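Encode chain A's predicted structure.
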Amino acid sequence: MSKCNILFLVSSCIRCFKCEPEERYDGSPLCKDFDGSDSFLEDCTHSTMCFKRETTLRLGDGMTSSTTQRGCAPQTLNGDQKKINGKWQYVTTIYEVYNEGCTDNVDPERPTKTVNCYCRGHLCNNSHIKIISYKTVLLLIIVYFIS
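Encoded structure for chain A:
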């Protein structure tokens, strides 16, 4: 049973694909092997968004090398405390710090280009991020039924 199902009674969470560009000690799957299977799923108990980061390094002779990373968007800070029943206790506060969509971090002085994408919704950080707002979907449905 996923952590999202257990926590659903008190809060909700989303699920995102998770993979790393290189091997890590925690055994996270590699993005080069990404196939969208269950082994790439992660419950985002401390996040309301997913992310996907693609970094491209320009090499000599016009060649490039690219890496990808996927996961839950980092939206918490370590050390948040709140006074509860007269005592300070550690709490997890989720901060809404990202806008949905993709941004390019391009600096002509650097040989790398990084594209950071943030999205809301289950498994939205798949291999092809397409962010469509609910307003667009609603508008398409209305137009469909009117015509």
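The chain has one domain: 14-146.
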